[in-house]
Write a structure and sequence with these properties.
heterodimer, A: about 110 residues, mainly beta, six-stranded mixed β-sheet, five-stranded antiparallel β-sheet, 11 strands, globular, B: about 120 residues, four-stranded antiparallel β-sheet, 10 strands, about 0% helix
C-alpha cells in the first residue's frame, strides 16, 4: 500500500459546484498534512496546511480524520481558475521528508 | 532572488552524457530537497540536505545520481551516463528548516529530456 493515496480523477465539475477530494495515508505516525496545488507544467505551490481542528481559507476547507487516516479538501463555488492538480502531502513524525500523493486532477468547466 | 531558482530550465541531452542541474534556495533556508516528477506521475523524493548535516540520500534511484550542497546554499544534482528513463522534471525545494510545520517552496524545475 502506498504511503499516500489519492484518486487521480479527473473530477469534472461546472462552475459554482462544490467538490471534495480525499487523501488516505498509511502511517499512523504522520503528523503534518498539507494540500499543494500544481498547475500544468508548473511547480507545486502550497494551498493550505491541514490542522487537527480543521481549517478554512475562503472557499477552501481542509479537514483531518486521524481515526480513519485521511484528509480532505472541500472547494465551494468552484471557479475556472481552480482547474489544477491537487497534491496531498504528509510528513511522518520525526521525518523531515514530505511524501507527496500523485494528485487529484480537477477540471472546472463553464 | 525571492524564490527558489533552478537552472537550466530545459535540458536536452544524449543518452550516456552527464548532466548537472543547479538549485539556488531561498536565502536563509537551511533545508533543501530534490524531487523528480515524470510525466503524469507523482513527486519522487531524491535527496534532502539540512544545514551541515549529512544528507539523506535514501531516494536516489541509482549510483549514477549524486548531489552536493556547497556552503549550505547552492546545490547541484549530477546525473552520470544519462538514460532515457531519467527524462523528467527535477524539482528543487527549500524550507526555513526541515520538519513539521515548515512550508517547502519549489523552484520551477529543470526539464530534462534524454534522447
Amino acid at each position: 500500500r502506498k504511503e499516500v493515496e489519492q484518486d487521480p480523477g479527473p473530477f469534472n465539475v461546472p462552475e459554482g459546484a462544490t467538490v471534495a477530494f480525499n487523501c488516505t495515508y498509511s502511517n499512523s505516525a504522520s503528523q503534518s498534512f498539507f494540500w499543494y496545488r500544481q498547475d500544468c507544467r508548473k511547480e507545486p505551490k502550497l494551498l493550505m496546511s491541514v490542522y487537527s481542528s480543521g481549517n478554512e481559507d475562503g472557499r477552501f476547507t481542509a479537514q483531518l480524520n486521524r481515526a480513519s487516516q485521511y484528509i480532505s479538501l472541500l472547494i465551494r463555488d468552484s471557479k475556472l481558475s481552480d482547474s489544477a492538480t491537487y497534491l496531498c502531502v504528509v510528513l511522518r513524525g520525526g521525518s523531515y521528508i514530505p511524501t507527496f500523493g500523485r494528485g487529484t486532477s480537477l477540471i472546472v468547466h463553464p | 532572488g525571492a524564490g527558489v531558482s533552478q537552472s537550466p530550465s530545459n535540458k536536452v541531452t544524449e543518452k550516456g552524457k552527464d548532466v548537472e542541474l543547479r538549485c539556488d534556495p531561498i536565502s536563509g533556508h537551511t533545508a533543501l530537497y530534490w524531487y523528480r516528477q515524470s510525466l503524469g506521475q507523482g513527486l519522487e523524493f531524491l535527496i534532502y540536505f539540512q544545514g551541515n548535516s549529512a544528507p539523506d540520500k535514501s531516494g536516489l534511484p541509482s549510483d549514477r545520481f549524486s548531489a552536493e550542497r556547497t556552503g549550505g546554499s547552492v546545490s547541484t544534482l549530477t546525473i552520470q551516463r544519462t538514460q532515457q528513463e531519467d527524462s523528467a522534471v527535477y524539482l528543487c525545494a527549500s524550507s526555513s528548516q526541515g520538519g513539521a510545520g515548515n512550508t517547502i517552496y519549489f523552484g520551477e524545475g529543470s526539464w530534462l529530456t534524454v534522447v
